[in-house]
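INTERNAL TRANSFER SHEET
From: sequence group
To: structure group
Subject: Phosphoglucosamine mutase

Please process the attached sequence and return the structure record in the designated field. Keep the field labels unchanged so the import script can parse them.
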Amino acid sequence: MTRRYFGTDGIRGTVGESPITADFMLKLGWATGRVLTREKGRARVMIGKDTRISGYMFESALESGLSAAGVDVMLLGPMPTPAIAYLTRTFRADAGIVISASHNPFQDNGIKFFSAAGTKLADEVEARIEAMLEEPLTTVAPDRLGKAMRVDDAPGRYIEFCKSTIPDRVSLHGLKMVVDCAHGATYHIAPSVFREMGAEVSLIGATPDGLNINQEVGSTHPAALRAAVIQQGADLGVAFDGDGDRVLLVDADGREIDGDDILYLIARDRHARGELGGGVVGTLMSNFGLAAAMEELEIPFERAKVGDRYVMERLATHGWQLGGESSGHIVCGHVQTTGDGIVSALQVLAIMVREQQSLGRLLAGLQKAPQALVNVRLTPGSDAKALLEQASLRQAVSSLEAELGDQGRVLLRASGTEPLIRVMVEGRPHLDVDALARRLADDVQALLG
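Return from structure group:
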């Protein structure tokens, strides 16, 4: 399906630039409401957001549009993206809307949708919403306007859900943790979850002001967490992104534990206990070492295109439960319908408690190949797809692939969430993958001028 507005992860862009404007959000709320009421008559939608200052504006605009279409609205305030998925299910709402640009800076914002089942909207529903956006906005009769209410106990409900995803007998007493909330949506949730389970928690990135989300903290900037873990002598650190659907860890030595590491830990543990329920889905970015480790454990492993939408599609196709991305977006389908940073972290913590082992020891069986990732920012007006089709760039990739042979691999792709071309080179330990990735990134930059 060719989408005008929807990307792989909803609608996203710079605030004030089309389509991330107040008038578009008003129309988007109305169009969504019209699609829902055509199917169900009366409908109810939940709206949550991260901590960006623009969230106030877009929350009001979406609420107005939904009300004009005759849809009742339940406002959750700042909540992690996976919390909206969970609460949409438990409140039996017809859809959930998240106002967030995830790991992007505060200048960006976006919209994500969840179905009544807490999963991504089906392509055909997105297509109907886009088609409705082309229609003139009309308002239902005054007696049919939608009502709005705030859900005051939303944080407490989600905190209890997170704790319920690991057995009651698992206690975090004795664990010293540093938690980095990226000044984002987990700031008032994650600390309570870990403290209530017994951990000693210190915080960074937990004082949002509307402008500092993801600013030098969080899963995209782990240096702050590494420094805090080492300085405080903590057992581990946990970092979320701005909307809480991603997580990265840091062990006691300051070593970064990414999504591939987390997938390995959860898969190995659930497989050993006979609870994996099939295989594991990674992505084209997943490290070769993860695939090799899955093969050694005799766990089926498949790569999807990058993006949680594609991971979820492959999981649904196979009826599997566990998948994710090296960026830290992990889907634990046995307890949650979407990627959930807090839930994923708890799965790892439960393993540490059960096995009485540090993260370093638990990861001894995973030998990852060196991997380098360089992001090249697109210039305004650049067409990422056309750029990747340039003959000179395709030749540069082919030459590097020939140079690597069976000792490595190359991946160039356009980011689905930011104006970036991502250059990834992976290879055996004797290769300087950083230099090779930079060389290819320079070729991309040269085409951009």
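Handover comment: The CA atoms of residues 180 and 204 lie 5 Å apart. The chain has four domains: 11-151, 157-255, 257-363, 371-447.
Transfer complete.
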